[in-house]
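Pasting as-is:
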Amino acid sequence: MLANPKTTVTKKTKKKGGNAVKNADALLKKKFVEIKIEDQNLKAHLGEPQLGNSHWFIFGDSGEGKTSYTLAVVKELTKNYKVLYNTLEEGDKKSFQNAIRRTGLKGNKNFLYIQANYEQIIEQLLKEKQPKIVVIDSAQYLFRGKQVQHYANLVNKFKNTTFIWISGADGTKPKGKIADDIRYDCDIVIFVKDFKAEIKKNRFEANASYIVWEEGYKQTLLK
């Protein structure tokens, strides 16, 4: 009679890291770094967003106040952080110069800008001591000839960075499939129209609108 073969029992080890099963208390004990916003109007608008592994999406048509809004937010952020603005659409054009001057960024050492394509921005961010807040203007320009997987690769490579994505609009929707996929992934979504920035989604429990340009906004109400 044949003897029963010995059964080998493999001892399971607990996995560590993101795939480990955790309880609610573990999450509640976790500390997140929050982006400090001092301006009370912007704080009511944006809340206390997470710094790193969390992204924003700003979209709207040309001439609606999108760039002015973005630079106003950037100016507030530079009170406490370095911000890198990737100006693919405008670059060193006079229009961008005017926007910088109008926002009052002259002499601001925490505001940095670059004109870089997809490969170049990765190369830049791989350098030491790069800003942890990066504005991409625009998603359409950065991902020309690319797929949504390129977006996923970028944000996964730089998990400690908050990306602020700027996008054109097709009516009340982002322009293009990749931009819409990015919108879905972001924690804060802002639609800018008639010099008014409206929150479409905010996972940080703030939803107040923000007037970009008071006079311009009032003029649109008279139309």
